[in-house]
Amino acid sequence: YSYKELRIATEGFNPVNKIGEGGFGSVYKGQLKDGKIAAIKVLSAQLKQGVKELLTKIGVISEIEHDNLVKLCGCCVKGNHRILVYNYLENNSLSQSLIG
Predict the structure, then answer these.
(1) 48 vs 50: CA distance, rounded Å
(2) Which of 9, 12, 24, 41 can bridge 84 by disulfide, Cβ–Cβ 3.0-4.6 Å?
(3) How far is residue 78's CA from residue 41's CA, in Å, rounded to a whole number?
(4) C-alpha span between 60 and 84 (Å, rounded)
(5) For 50-99, what is each residue's pLDDT tens digit?
(6) Residues annotated in the binding site for ATP, as ranges?
(7) How many domains does the chain have?
């Protein structure tokens, strides 16, 4: 995904669309240009991973499919931007999905 596409999907990373925040960054709900709703995680600038290392990890993570894991759909690695795009769990959280 391009940074522009993800910025548009989240309405400029609007705080109204923020659905979570953790040690690795903030997560926003966004609508991609194909209409799909996604959880868009903006990784913290403090993460010191190089682009090559991050892309290797993203490649591995994107191949993993398991009922207890949210699917990674894509990413944006452009300039200082490090953004991961996941399937969105409607009215739910990962912990709620795991507990049932």
Answers:
(1) 6
(2) 41
(3) 14
(4) 13
(5) 666 777 777 777 777 777 678 888 899 888 888 999 989 876 655 554 44
(6) 41
(7) 1
Domain of residue 61 covers 3-99
CATH of the domain at 57: 3.30.200.20
- In the annotated binding site, the residues are 41
Order of strands, edge to edge, in the sheet holding 18-22?
A: 18-22, 25-31, 37-43, 81-87, 72-78
- pTM of the full structure: 0.78
Determine the Cα–Cα distance for residues 95 and 74; give it in Å rounded to an integer: 22
